[in-house]
UniProtKB/TrEMBL annotation:
Gene Ontology terms, MF aspect: uroporphyrinogen-III synthase activity
Domain of life: Eukaryota
Organism (species): Suillus plorans
Domain Tetrapyrrole biosynthesis uroporphyrinogen III synthase: 16-283
Gene3D superfamilies: 3.40.50.10090
Lineage, opening ranks: Eukaryota, Fungi, Dikarya, Basidiomycota, Agaricomycotina
Name this protein carries in UniProt: Tetrapyrrole biosynthesis, uroporphyrinogen III synthase
InterPro entries: 4pyrrol_syn_uPrphyn_synt_sf (IPR036108), 4pyrrol_synth_uPrphyn_synth (IPR003754), UROS/Hem4 (IPR039793)
Pfam families: HEM4
GO BP terms: uroporphyrinogen III biosynthetic process
Assigned GO CC terms: cytosol
């Protein structure tokens, strides 16, 4: 049974479909998280909070993830410390505007925030289980906003990889979005350590490394080269083959975009690309390749 390194975080609290797919085919999958989310723009968000919604002509706030809730929490706590816990000023009263949440988890996180932090936090939280996608949330907001003919502007807290679905729907209906990036995704600072632990505990029987995104590939490959002999494109000789202490592996990609990046930019040989970006298709491709060898 050979190890398969999955460059992704496993699902927490439920069976992981990618791990299950490889395990059912006789492999030993190991998922290692490669990304982390960091809060950005906290000072600007705190400034917005201190001004309050009325002076910014805001009709509400859109929160699309728990990371955005965390960013709001950090900004609110920073203001409370700066204000030395003075009472909330009327002009900074965020209780008066609705907060629109994507999905139940985000809605619950907002409610928890309002209970833990008394100042600068929401009271009117709308949406939840019925607004679990961008499309549903946009439709909910359009129905919920007053149809009194006045212009509507919403503060929209985003990350660095948000889709444009929600902005397109709202703006096409005449709603103005004041977008503010409050979190960003980057390579995990813990990846080198997590990889070393996996190598230490799982022995030397490594068969495959599976890439799931070009951005991940660019970050992790230099680190992987410290431990693995990665197959070079257009060559029958593995990269670092002269280093016997390196584990020799084959490379698989979740889809053609990742495959192209691995081959053209990182000059790696990709043995398998999933026919569809699904766990079973990926695991089937790896198994069929091994059986053909």
């Amino acid at each position: 049974m050979s190890n398969v390194l999955l460059l992704r975080a496993a699902n927490q609290g439920s069976p992981d479909r990618y791990e299950d797919a490889f395990r059912s085919r006789g492999y030993h999958p190991i998922s290692v998280p490669v990304l982390e989310t960091v809060i950005v723009g906290c000072e600007e968000l705190a400034r917005r909070l201190s001004i309050g919604p009325e002076k910014q002509s805001l009709s509400g706030v859109i929160i699309t993830s728990q990371r955005a809730v965390e960013a709001w929490s950090e900004a609110a706590q920073a203001l409370i410390i700066a204000d030395n816990n003075t009472p909330l000023k009327p002009e900074s009263d965020w209780w008066s505007v609705p907060f629109y949440a994507v999905g139940e988890a985000t809605s619950v996180a907002l409610r928890d925030l309002s209970e833990k932090i008394p100042l600068y936090t929401p009271r009117d939280i709308r949406g939840g289980s019925e607004t679990g996608t961008a499309e549903r949330l946009a439709g909910f907001i359009l129905k919920d906003l007053p149809s009194d003919g006045t212009s509507k502007q919403l503060l929209y807290l985003t990350g660095d990889k948000n889709r444009d679905t929600l902005p397109m729907i709202l703006e096409s209906a005449g709603v103005t979005l004041d977008s503010l990036q409050v979190y960003a995704t980057q390579g995990s600072s813990m990846f080198p350590h997590a990889l070393s632990l996996a190598l230490e505990h799982e022995g030397s029987s490594w068969g495959w490394i599976v890439y799931f995104a070009p951005s991940v590939a660019e970050f992790v490959t230099p680190i992987l080269r410290n431990h693995f002999a990665l197959p070079a494109a257009n060559s029958s000789i593995d990269d670092c083959a002269q280093l016997s202490e390196h584990h020799h592996v084959k490379v698989a990609a979740i889809g053609p975009t990742t495959e192209s990046f691995l081959q053209q930019t990182l000059k790696l040989s990709v043995a398998v690309t999933a026919k569809n970006p699904k766990p079973d298709d990926l695991a089937d491709g790896v198994l069929q390749y091994d059986e053909a060898q």
